[in-house]
Design goal:
With 113 residues, this protein is an all-alpha fold. The protein has helices at residues 4-21, 23-37, 44-57, 61-73, 78-110. Helix 4 crosses helix 5 (78-110).
């Protein structure tokens, strides 16, 4: 079982190294993320739930952790996360079922107590 909070912190540390070693690339990536996540027609929570669904469908564990955490920070409920996982399963078939379990595990570990 992945310990999601520890895993996210490990990735953050590695990303700091990338920012130091490839500052222009990481600055551009950060700008892209900020532009994509800015609330416009869709609010930030909805955008994070979309990102979570895509994370499951493309089978990116690191992305799952970050987007579950961000969705929680934006106020996502368990029901919203579960419905998002249902859409990811629909779009990604069998492999998405397996990765949806990763996202559910991350949610359970990262939710406020």
């Amino acid at each position: 079982m992945t310990q999601w909070a520890d895993h996210i912190n490990e990735i953050i540390a590695l990303m700091r190294t990338l920012r130091g070693d490839t500052p222009n690339v990481m600055k551009a990536f950060s700008g892209l993320a900020q532009a994509a996540l800015a609330p416009q027609a869709l609010d930030s929570k909805t955008k994070e739930l979309i990102a979570l669904g895509i994370s499951v469908a493309i089978r990116c564990d690191d992305c799952i952790g970050f987007h579950v955490k961000a969705a929680l920070e934006q106020g996502a409920t368990r029901e919203e996360v579960i419905e998002t996982l249902g859409m990811a399963i629909y779009m990604g078939a069998g492999p998405s079922v397996m990765y949806a379990t990763h996202a559910l595990e991350a949610y359970e570990q990262l939710k406020p107590v």
